[in-house]
Design a protein that fits this description.
single chain, alpha/beta, five-stranded parallel β-sheet, 24% helix, globular
Length: 450
């Protein structure tokens, strides 16, 4: 497009990938403007501040960001140690936002993105128009900002998956909102602990977040008689249900799965398999789950739904996006990240080309780019925005020369990611792919693929 070069590149979200995008844009001589709805950098990360990532510091910082930070006297923490979400926010994300200064605005919620003067129907001179980004400030004021390009790195944290097996809220789910949670509970909080102690809780989900909830509630059961968990799985239990166990290259991740397995084997949790929830019904002061096949479980006191996240596309309704019909990820990227085929260690390297849409100069990056696929790494996001910044700057050769350092094996959990269910739903530990790194050029398949 021919939008004026003096216009900023809008970056939506001041999380790890959004701030990395800003750093890469600055390195390219472009002016970023980061719009963050929360009050600080890494707002979503701070909501799981107690989580310790499975990935070390060496894998959760971006090279361009480090270059911006270096003149301030900042030094990266020991690369072999593992930060918590709180560490990540306070020791890296907030200092980076501070260096970016006025380029980061807090309390700024993006409510709409469009081509200036053109709704999504209009073709005439469309690509010649700058973007119009509508913003609502925390004090209620509204403003319209014009931009040469937009990078949406807002993540998926704000929309957790529902209880209903068909992707919609189960009948009665909203009415039971006071008893339904979509995050792993922080049982170190006395009020939260009281909510689950001595009570019967349904945990719905089969990922690392569910494992964490099972393990924590099992610990609570040993201290508080009457505490019991009903673990709801939409599928059956197989050899890989609990992850790699003792064979896992990440001992902490393997141990988490073993703790969940122990919770079931020791009777602290009862597994219910092949149960696809259709409804939540009141049963006196308790709740009963009803499956699509008609099964009705004994009542529970609380329900914890850990079924992943999905992207908020509502404010992009006037933009011509090319999204995969299943994953809601960019169409060219979707086949590379399909969770039925790939873990984060087998995702092909990708950049601006795979993140492009029919609407030029708008990119979904970071966890947002993966739509409903969970296998995302911070390293992947950092390389995405390096390529995107190069593309916006007109350096197509650099944009195509995507290099990505990926773990060689492992099923993805948190690895420095901030929107993966394991990390972002408040688990005590976040999973990751971590094995022997391998550097790959775009268009080549990882050694473990196929």
């Amino acid at each position: 497009m021919n939008a004026p070069d003096h216009l900023p590149v809008i970056v939506i979200g001041a999380g790890p990938v959004g701030l990395a995008a800003a750093a890469h844009l600055v390195a390219r001589g472009l002016e970023p403007l980061v719009l963050e709805s929360g009050p600080s950098a890494g707002t979503a990360v701070r909501e799981w501040a107690r989580v310790r990532l499975f990935s070390p510091w060496s894998e959760v910082t971006d090279p361009a960001a480090e270059k911006l930070l270096a003149p301030t006297g900042w030094t990266r923490p020991d690369g072999t140690t593992y930060p918590t979400g709180g560490d990540w926010a306070e020791r890296y994300l907030q200092p980076l936002a501070h260096v970016l200064g006025d380029r980061v605005r807090y309390g700024a919620t993006v409510t709409g993105v469009a081509r200036a003067g053109r709704d999504r129907i209009v073709d005439a001179d469309r690509d010649e128009q700058p973007f119009a980004v509508h913003v609502r400030r925390s004090d209620g004021r509204e403003e319209r900002i014009t931009a040469r390009a937009v990078i949406d790195a807002s993540g998926t944290w704000s929309i957790p998956g529902p209880l209903g097996a068909d992707g919609l809220p189960a009948l009665g789910e909203k009415a039971a909102a006071d008893r339904v949670s979509y995050r792993v509970p922080d049982l170190t909080d006395p009020a939260v602990r009281t909510r689950y102690a001595g009570r019967r809780t349904a945990v719905v989900g089969s990922g690392a977040s569910a494992f964490t909830a099972l393990a924590q509630l099992a610990d609570l059961a040993r201290e508080e008689p009457g505490t019991h968990t009903v673990w709801i799985l939409r599928r059956g239990i197989g050899a890989d249900t609990y992850g790699g166990g003792e064979a896992d290259q990440l001992p902490a991740r393997g141990a988490l799965g073993l703790r969940a397995k122990a919770a079931v084997e020791r009777g602290h949790a009862t597994a219910v398999t092949g149960f696809r929830t259709q409804a939540v019904e009141r049963d006196g002061d308790r709740l009963a789950l009803v499956a699509e096949d008609g099964r009705r479980l004994d009542p529970v006191d609380e329900i914890i739904v850990l079924t992943g996240f999905r992207p908020d596309l509502s404010f992009l309704s006037e933009i011509r996006l090319g999204l995969d019909e299943r994953l809601q990820a960019p169409a060219a990227l979707a086949p590379l990240i399909d969770p039925n085929l790939h873990s984060c260690g087998t995702v092909y390297p990708h950049g601006a080309r795979e993140l492009s849409h029919p609407e030029p100069d708008i990119y979904l990056a970071g966890m947002k780019s993966y739509g409903r696929a969970p296998t995302f790494l911070a390293l992947t996001g950092y390389e995405q925005v390096r390529s995107v910044a190069a593309a916006i700057a007109g350096d197509r050769e650099a944009a195509e020369r995507v290099e990505l350092t990926l773990p060689e094996t492992g099923v993805c959990g948190g690895a420095g990611l901030y929107d993966e269910p394991a990390a972002a739903q408040g688990a005590d530990t976040a999973g990751s792919c971590c094995g022997t790194p391998t550097t790959l050029q775009i268009g080549t398949a990882p050694p473990s693929a196929n």
